[in-house]
Amino acid sequence: MDGVVLAVSRSATHTFSKQNQESIQLLAGFGVEGDSHMGKTIKHRSRVAVDPTQPNLRQVHLIHAELHDELQAAGFVVSAGQMGENITTRGINLLALPVDTRLYLGNTAVVQLTGLRNPCAQLEQFQAGLMAAVLGRNEHGKLIRKAGVMGIVVIGGVVIPGDTIQVELPQKPHQSLERV
């Protein structure tokens, strides 16, 4: 289940899209250096309004490029970083991984998955119909969130496009990712 980093992105302000970078520095326990979501406590504005002391389980946002492919095939114009992700991957079914999966990125960095990104109205403001396109239902009617996964930085390091990603599953029983 190895994959590759296609792009890395960050934004120092709370913009919807993040600018692609040549590299990003992950800081253990904090997130992406220079990104508006970096910190030990939650930085997502709507969640800060509820309780600013919550732990930041959304330090790093990852989206699989296969979602971009699917959206492009449906007529959307979207590329790496435009949906707010820090790391764009290829070759790993991020949505199928369980909570606490560790992703080894490049030579040193390790991100531990905490949950799914809950798509927000900003997707719709970015492109009409995008919110509906990243939501679906399975055969049992359960809501499927396709807008990527969130994680925390366990071990810091530099991440660059082209880095390999190795997946380490947690011990069983596995817990499915839920929105965080």
TrEMBL record:
InterPro entries: MoCF_Sase_C (IPR005302), MOSC_domain (IPR052716), Pyrv_Knase-like_insert_dom_sf (IPR011037). PANTHER family: METAL-SULFUR CLUSTER BIOSYNTHESIS PROTEINS YUAD-RELATED, MOSC DOMAIN-CONTAINING PROTEIN. It comes from the Bacteria. Residues 19-168 form the MOSC domain. This is MOSC domain-containing protein. PROSITE patterns: MOSC. It holds the Pfam family MOSC.
